[in-house]
Description:
Layout: E1 5-9, H1 14-25, E2 30-34, H2 37-50, E3 55-59, H3 65-77, E4 81-86, H4 101-129, E5 133-137, H5 150-170, E6 176-180, H6 189-192, H7 206-218, E7 223-224, H8 226-232
Parallel strand pairs: 1-2, 1-4, 2-3, 4-5, 5-6, 6-7
Helix pairs in contact: 1-2, 1-7, 3-4, 4-5, 7-8
Bound molecules: NADP nicotinamide-adenine-dinucleotide phosphate.
Amino acid sequence: MPKPTALVTGASSGIGATYADRLAKRGHDLVLVARDEGRMEALAARLREETSAVVDIIRADLASEADIRVVEERLRQDPEIGILINNAGVSYGGSFEEQSADDLARLVSVNVTAVMRLAHAVAPRFAAGGDGAIVNIGSVVGLVPEFGQTVYGATKAFVQFLSQGMAHDLGPKGVYVQAVLPAATATEIWSRAGADPAKLPPLMDVGDLVDAALVGFDRREPVTIPPCTMSASGMRSRQPARR
Ligand SMILES: NC(=O)c1ccc[n+]([C@@H]2O[C@H](COP(=O)([O-])OP(=O)(O)OC[C@H]3O[C@@H](n4cnc5c(N)ncnc54)[C@H](OP(=O)(O)O)[C@@H]3O)[C@@H](O)[C@H]2O)c1
């Protein structure tokens, strides 16, 4: 049986690029979505060389209505796509009152609106076929208001609730929905948010994170917290925790 194609958002770096790598190595073709076309082209070229995956690219800004529509349409129309990895996300530094209204609106557009719209676009086709998987990347920050990332955490609490609600609706129709809640992981999200490198918590290796998330995926867990999965299943890290 040919494996379904996976559409991965935020595939130009970090967790999304690592999902792309692991899924290509598992035999899935890919559709990569992000803004940085050059980085996606480089990743696609490597994966085509290392695997037999067919890798397509959609350059899209998921804060843009026009670009979201393009990705929605692909999810509705492409019958090969059987996995959606809803991973793209942003974080901004500063406290609630310091953050600009424009940045907060952008945060909600990418972390909430795009995640919901893309899942909503593909869900009817998956439900009609009685198959398919939707993976939404939340965060443990969504469980802990005391971390002080108020709007980012609220977007991630939304993603978790959305995922569990969708699992309730779509699970009986054969669609698997997984919420993945990473803890602090070594990706560019920290530097993009202007975090002080001296104040970073210990960071999980991004390869370990995605491998643990995929253990949860294979077990059809509704919610996976990768550091917990990793320690509970005896997985060994390939990398020491970083700051
Ligand atoms: N790293 C952590 O500690 C951590 C912890 C918990 C949850 N997460 C979540 O994990 C997910 C992936 O983040 P990461 O850690 O891998 O960070 P990252 O390396 O900064 O990756 C973020 C990805 O999202 C894409 N993206 C950002 N804004 C976008 C937009 N407007 N339109 C389209 N794509 C956009 C970026 O691509 P372009 O710039 O090319 O568009 C990039 O590929 C996020 O949802 C994040 O909230 C991360």
